[in-house]
Amino acid sequence: MRELFSDELKKLHGRFMEMGINISEQIYQATSAFTQYDKKLAQQVIDDDQRTNSEEIFLEKEALKLIALQQPVASDFREIISILKASSDLERIGDHAVNIARETLNTSDQKNDVKIEKQIGKMAGDIRKMLEQVMDAYVNRDERQARKGAEKDLNIDQQYIDIRKAVTSAIESQETTAERGSSYLMIDRLLERIGDHIVNLCEWVVYNQSGKIVELNAGKISPELLQN
């Protein structure tokens, strides 16, 4: 019975990791579609979102089934709960990627700002690295790595502020249009929110290993308040 439970838990863990890999690719595709004005790729991101939603539902059902039928010991229970909660954050990250893709479909490539788009690309790349680090922390059951990953969100917040300032300046100097600038601000905000969800993932790694529910970066001031 215990061996069967271990096998099912490994399968659950594997599916969760696969979901994380797919979400990382979604972020890449969505931001690439935006900066390259690739509406076909943007539509693909939107179409693929159903797979993400289905995967979250599957993980939720399997996690609850394991809890109900197997009555896991404390450490296994924490692992199941952390996957259950973290899969919800992954799904929300996927939703933000879809919103980036939708913005791509709604805007034109008129009067774009190459410098700002390069900043957006870097921010997206750093977010993917942050996500990959926390997924590695899940695999390695590494609380320290998760805590270090959460600290990187402070850099994401700074990039968010820098991009907002750059967009405001570009609109004022008419280097880009108000319409395009509005799109930049929306993408910037969506990426910042993705960073916050990744911090949540880090917190669930800490819970999995320590049994403690923590708020990482608890003293962080909202970037909305810092930007001025």
UniProtKB/TrEMBL annotation:
One of its GO terms (biological process) is phosphate ion transport. It comes from the Bacteria. Pfam families: PhoU. GO terms for cellular component: cytoplasm. It is found in: Cytoplasm. Its main location: cytoplasm. InterPro entries: PhoU (IPR028366), PhoU-like_sf (IPR038078), PhoU_dom (IPR026022). The keyword GTP-binding does not apply. Gene3D superfamilies: Phosphate transport system protein phou homolog 2, domain 2. The keyword Transport applies. Keywords: Cytoplasm, Phosphate transport, Transport. Residues 17-103, 121-205 form the PhoU domain. Homodimer. Plays a role in the regulation of phosphate uptake. NCBIfam families: phoU_full. Belongs to the PhoU family. This is Phosphate-specific transport system accessory protein PhoU. It comes from Amylolactobacillus amylotrophicus DSM 20534. The lineage of its organism: Bacteria, Bacillati, Bacillota, Bacilli, Lactobacillales.
